[in-house]
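tl;dr need the bound structure. longer version: we got a ligand (adenosine-5'-triphosphate) that a collaborator sent over and nobodys looked at where it sits. i said id run it. heres the input, straight from their email, havent touched it
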Amino acid sequence: MIFYASKRILFTLPIMLGVTIVCFALVHLAPGDPLVSVLPPDASQVIKEQMMALYGFDRPYHEQFLRWLWRALQGDIGTSIRTGRPVSTEISKAVGNTLMLAALATAIGFLLGTLFGFVAGYFRDTWVDKAASALSVFGVSVPHYWLGMVLVIIFAATLGWLPPTGAGPGGSEDWKWNWVHVQYLILPAVTMSVIPMGIIARTVRALVAEILSQEFVVGLRAKGLSELGVFGHVVKNAAPTALAVMGIQLGYLLGGSILIETVFAWPGTGLLLNDAIFQRDLPLLQGTILVLAMFFVVLNLVVDVMQTILDPRIQRA
Amino acid sequence: MTGSILEIRDLRVAFTGAAKPVRAVDGVDLALVPGEVVALLGESGSGKSVTLRSILRLHPENKTRIEGSIVAAGIDVMALSGAALADFRGKTVSMIFQEPMLALDPVYTLGAQITEAIRKHESGVSADAARKRALGLFERVRIPSPERRLDSYPHELSGGMRQRAMIALALACNPKVLLADEPTTALDATVQVQILLLLRELQRELDLAMIFVTHDIGVGVEVADRIAVMYAGRIVEIGAVRDVIRAPRHPYTIGLLSTRAQGGRLSGKRLPTITGSPPDLASLPPGCAFAPRCSSATSACLEAAPAAVELGHGHAVRCIHTAAVA
Ligand SMILES: Nc1ncnc2c1ncn2[C@@H]1O[C@H](COP(=O)(O)OP(=O)(O)OP(=O)(O)O)[C@@H](O)[C@H]1O
Ligand SMILES: [Mg+2]
């Protein structure tokens, strides 16, 4: 097991290197001058060159890459052009917010998704199944920014139960675990949970139906297990796949929340990425993409290792 | 029959899932005394597995109509439900499946699956004690390095070892009746023989009553005291192995045995020496189901399903021509 895990970790190293190269290249392949957004349009050529030298944009690409990589390894992924603060500081704050949102959304999605999935799988082809399936199809197909806006209109604008946007009263960004702050989390989390809910429900439904059609379920009944006992076996058979799907969904939510974070002005990585793009803040963009990509790689690793622990059939050698 | 450990009377099973009900079992009578082995023979689709599964009430309740009476060790099986049914399964009657790879839960160790059964049926047995018993069972079915194998998953064993583990599981709670549904069909020829010998040995030691489903007449002759031949959901001939083999009376049995004479095995869908194919179970003819394929069929055969005719020594045949002769 330890051996397998270390082997998997070793395998991720080249992937990570590839990710850094792509991150670096993507930004430099983008057209336009990286400093265009900070310098006044009438800045002299001298000042321009001074700034280029200051940020290192005048060096050859491979040198820029190695310097960037070397610094990144030490935790320094540059300085935001816009705010002048270290990119790492900007990101860690945003990552915290996104993580909170994504984790809550995944948790809600996983709970409801497995519930619907199990019910639909157990009562296949009955109206219960059809209702649960319709709900999950809605979940994966509804545009989420639209759903977010609808929820805002209903629960914030009309009913006034919850705040529409932001992460704290008066645009404050100091998160605290109290109701005043937590109420800001609810609408975006619910909106976001609809994606994993739909996907997990569909996966679990198919899984449960498939497991229940297997001969070993008859075997379990034949040896005298109650329906509850059989259910326990179904859960354990479904768990590796369901958890893997959940992990991948969490990964998507960590990076793929730009639209929802923008709709709710939630100060997470999605909003940060959005700002970085529109303000042409290259170091910030690069750093954010890098961190998100790394997250994804690590998450895949964790899901993979977890799956081998849960499912004995996957080779551990 | 008095003193029988298992008694099935006029069992009828119809699957109602499709437009027309499929009458898979259509009036089966069968009784076993303790320690007796009956081989159940017949073409694919003749209702052998459905009969076995009915004894444990394993068919989905909402899509199956099941009638008749089944009494096992004094328990009225048809009256069972819920917890009482679960208690009965695996304890009084247990089952061995054709493909242990499919019939065992792939994500539980073999040890866990056996101890689970023991502790389900005997509350108060500690985990340790159950594991000791599982170990004893593994030794009994002669699985090498049993201690280690208890912690193996089904996919880590060879087919023969898996079937041994399946047998251990089936015997875990000292059942009185063992239902074996083609337990050796999926195995290599040499392994088949070993499993067969093991089963027979255990059956004798434990004085188990056993119904042994097989396609292979040779295997049936080897393990059984009596042979029952099924066709289209009915037992068309039953009797002591010697009587049925030496003096088969039903045209279908005679056809079956001639395939054996040619060294054939009943593996395919059809019998080479009997032309035609089994009837559609969703629209069975009113008369003898075998009549359309039978060379000695007369118009009388098409009128009513033939009743069982006793020929002595428990040899019974469902054929009106036999009745005329007898
Ligand atoms: N759950 C079910 N729903 C509908 N029809 C079924 C079901 N189970 C079995 N049948 C049908 O009942 C008939 C008898 O099947 P059964 O499995 O008992 O045959 P068998 O004699 O065991 O054949 P084999 O030698 O191939 O195992 C078949 O026609 C089969 O298609
Ligand atoms: Mg069968």
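gonna send this back to them w/ a short note. Chain A has one domain: 90-316.
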